[in-house]
Amino acid sequence: MEYTITSSNDGLFIILKAKGDMTGKQALQMNREAHSLGRQLHIKRYLVDATEARNVEMPSGNYHFAYSDMQNAEAFDKNAIIAAVVSPDDHSHDFVETVARNAGFRMRLFTDFLEAKRYLMAQDSASAA
Asked: Whole-prediction pTM value?
């Protein structure tokens, strides 16, 4: 998997762009780097472009990612707001969204970038989604 991490031109959110098959280990590394940049820039909103990335992790790996990896890593901002944009026909990210939300992370999947950006901007970083 390849990925890039940048801040939006307006400085309102961190953009993660992933391409290829994604495992939990790769997602963990990508998210560590993104949250590090977010802390440096004081940004709590993350836009993930996964339209060219497929989650190939097993369900047990997705569960471990949400309930263990992300929970136990101090590198992650527990108040982050995450909008991930996926291809309309790609349901490989559905389960990780479910377990991430159940684990207390504010993550939602979208198939439209504008809708994802609206969601990010409508959320107060101090309140639950």
From this structure: 0.87
